[in-house]
Each structure stands twice: as C-alpha cells, then as structure tokens.
Amino acid sequence: MAIQKPTLPKGTRDFGPLDLQKRKSIIKNIEDVFKKYGFMPLETPAMENLSTLEGKYGEEGDKLLYRILNSGNFLQSYKDSTDYTNAIDNIEGKDIVKYIAEKGLRYDLTVPFARYVVMNRSQLVFPFKRYQIQPVWRADRPQKGRYREFWQCDADIVGSESLINELDLISIYHDVFTQLKINYELRVNNRKILAGIAEVVKSIDYITTIAVAIDKLDKIGEEGVRKELAESAFTESELNTLFEIIKSKGNNQFILENLKDKLKTSETGTKGVEELSFLLQNIENCNRATNNAVNLKLDFSLARGLSYYTGCIFEVTALDSSLMSSIGGGGRYDNLTENFGLPNVSGVGISFGLDRIYDVMEELNLFSASIRTTQSKILCCFFDEKSQEYCLPAVTKLRAVGIAAEIYPDVNRKKAIVKQLDYANALQIPFAAIAGENEINQNVFTLKNLLTGEQNTLKLDDIIQMLKE
C-alpha cells in the first residue's frame, strides 16, 4: 500500500522556529503598545454557538463561517427520531445545518468579545478596554495574503461613546507600525457618512446595498460596482452623484468641507462629518505636540463589509508592499451587545492582521537580524563522557540563574567539538563553553565567542556574570 503524502488544508500553513520567533516579535510589539494605552488581556474559546455568530457579519460573512459537526454518534440517534423524519421531508439547502451543527469556529474576535461583555457585565468596570490576540477562521477562497486560518490582534473599548477612544486607536496604529518600520496609510470613513450618501443619492434604505457594493471597489473596479448597483435599480444619474462624492480629491480638510456641503440635507450624514472633523482637528494637535505624523487619509469609498459598524471605520494598508490587502481595520459599533440582550453599550475597536503584517515584513526584509531560531545564549561543549559529566552541573546552574543554555546530548569522540560547534553555529548560539581535561583540572571553561572567534579561559561564575551583562 502506497504511503499517502501529507498535505495541509488549503489556506493554512506551518511556521518553523525562526518564523515563530519573528511572529512573536510582532506580537510583543503590538501587545506592549496595547498595555501602554491601558488595555487588558482576554481570551475566548475557538468555537462559539452558531446562534452567537450567525447574523452578525451580514449575508456574505455568514457564508464564510466554519460550522462544526455535532460530536458523537448524533446522526444515527437523530435519524431514528420523529423530529428528523418530519424535518427531512421538507428540508431545503442550508436549513440542514441546524440539524447537524450547533457550533462554529469564530469568524473574528469582536463578536465573541461582545458576547463575553454581556455574560460578564456585572464584573466589568466600564469603559472596559481589552486586547485579544488569537486565531480566527473563515471559509474564504485562499489567495495571496488571504488565509482560512489567521491571527488577529484586537483592541476594543466598550461602554463609552467618546471619540477620544477613536483618537487612541489611531495612535495605537501609528505607534505599532512606526516601531515595526512599516510605511502605512490609515484610511478613515464614517458609517453615518455612508448613510448620508445613501440618503442624498437615493434613499437611506439603500445604505447596505451601497456599502456592500463599494466595499468591492478594489476588487471589481468602478465599472463592476456601477453594474452591481444598476442591477439594484440605481439610475445613471444616481451613480454619477455617488462616485462624484466617494472619489473626491484634495487634502483631508478640503474634501471634508466639500462633503459637508453635499450632505447638508442629511442629519445623519452631517453628524458623521462632525465626528471626522473632531478627529482631524485633534490628530493635528497631537501631531504638533509629539512631532508625529499620523498618515491618515479620508476615503468615503471605505465601507468595511461587516454590518455591525455604526460610526468611524478604519483600514490600514502597507504602502511599500505588493500585498494590496489591508493589514488592519476596525470601527465603531453601537448595537453589537444589543444582539445579546444588552442595549445602549457603545463600542469601538481595531484589529491588526498578524499574518499579513508578517508577510509584509518578510517581503520588505524588516525583521531584525538579531532574531534567532533559538533563545539559547550558550552551548556547553565536551570531548568525552568525563567532560560531558563536568558540563552537566554547569548547564543546570546557568539555567537556574535565568540564562538559556544547552548541552549537546551525544558523544562522538572523533568529531566531538567540531560537530557541537557546527550545531551551535547553525542555530546562531553566540557562545560555546568548552571543557576538556585541562579545563576540568583547573575548574574552568574555555569560553568562545562564535560571532568573533575570540576565546578566554574563565570560571563558571565569571561566565555567568559576563552573559548577564
């Protein structure tokens, strides 16, 4: 029988030791910034009840949910029941899901967070600021920069309607991407402005139709969006008005003033303009105070497909990368907890796409050269069984004082030291502590710096002091 070659599910990938060290460096950077702004950590289960997930992401999002088959031999017992017999006679397409799946893998971290807030509201101090760094799953079509399993790094604030929160989140984006040396562009819009545009162009009832269509602008272009909206009864004149607004040119202040005039008949749209004006003014003030330059661009074509957004929305792209997809996004959601029975709790949040950030940094060679596959600082090397025995207590002591240390496990008399040093060099371990008969007699080690080739004879305590410094 032929052995089947192992494969990975499409849209997933393995990460080796060096890859993981690089990813951990990104996570540490993001997590440190989250903590600096007062966010607290949270984790939720990989799976949620489908009743929690369904209906929160719009029709397109629901199609991408991974549903989990009910566990155990439930199909056999269900098949023999009257409920199943009655249902199967009238079953239609997707309705079969409710008979075979009650749970699904989380699609994002925001909806599980809203569910957590509702379930734990009596224990929380509001406004509640949490960060969460975990994988999510989407049954999307895999392509460059788009995976079916990927990690999100989220920061959310619930229980406050203040736009100060949006300012903090914008600053978080700037701090992280500046430290990662990623040249970014942060696009900003407001769902109230989209509602105003819908009201002015056709009717407020068409906000979802417009948002879903223009969200595809990067993928299908203006012609494709026009065609899609024309099929939804938009006239040529209405489409021209729509694209005149969303394709406005000029600096942020100019296009916002221009929009203010076009939306003056829409109360909702005017409110959206006021919110963006507040952000622009205060970002400018903060920029002057810190000499920062937040690269923010108003973009009225930005829609963010998720249906729970109600206010400001954000999307970040890497300017120097061939990856055209976003590396971050988020926005204000005022009604998400209401879906779980807790009304009037406003929230706002952002997400970093860890996998896309990793891809961008790999492409642009932005990772520090100091990132190594192992954290070991020193390898204890020996010539024979006796010197190996001499090294064992030394390794134990090094580890006891917090120094990452290794000892080569095998003894090969012919090429003992050469093989061990090759091992250390391959893993970029910077130091080797070598012990032979002379070292044992003098109760010392020969410490070799594998980066420079320099070596000295030192006692173990001196080696510990040097490595600590």
N-C termini distance: 58 Å
**Over all CA atoms, what is the radius of gyration?**
29 Å
Number of helices: 19
Low-confidence stretches: none
CATH superfamily of the largest domain: Bira Bifunctional Protein, Domain 2
Average of the residue pLDDT scores: 91
State the gist of this model.
This protein has 469 residues and is of the alpha+beta class. It has 19 helices and 16 strands. Helix 13 runs antiparallel to helix 14.
Report on the structure:
- This protein has 469 residues and is of the alpha+beta class.
- It folds into two domains: 17-45 and 107-363, Bira Bifunctional Protein, Domain 2 (BirA Bifunctional Protein, domain 2, 2-Layer Sandwich), CATH 3.30.930.10; 378-468, Rossmann fold (3-Layer(aba) Sandwich).
- The chain contains 19 helices and 16 strands.
- It has helices at residues 17-36, 50-53, 58-63, 74-79, 82-89, 97-100, 110-119, 164-179, 191-201, 207-214, 217-230, 236-246, 252-262, 267-290, 354-363, 385-400, 416-426, 437-442, 460-468; strands spanning 40-41, 47-49, 67-69, 101-105, 128-137, 149-158, 184-190, 296-298, 312-318, 328-333, 347-353, 378-382, 405-407, 431-435, 445-449, 455-458.
- The strands form three sheets. The protein has an eight-stranded mixed sheet with strand order 1-5-6-11-10-9-7-8.
- α1 crosses α15 (354-363) and α10 packs antiparallel against α11.
- 35% of the residues are buried.
- The mean pLDDT is 91.
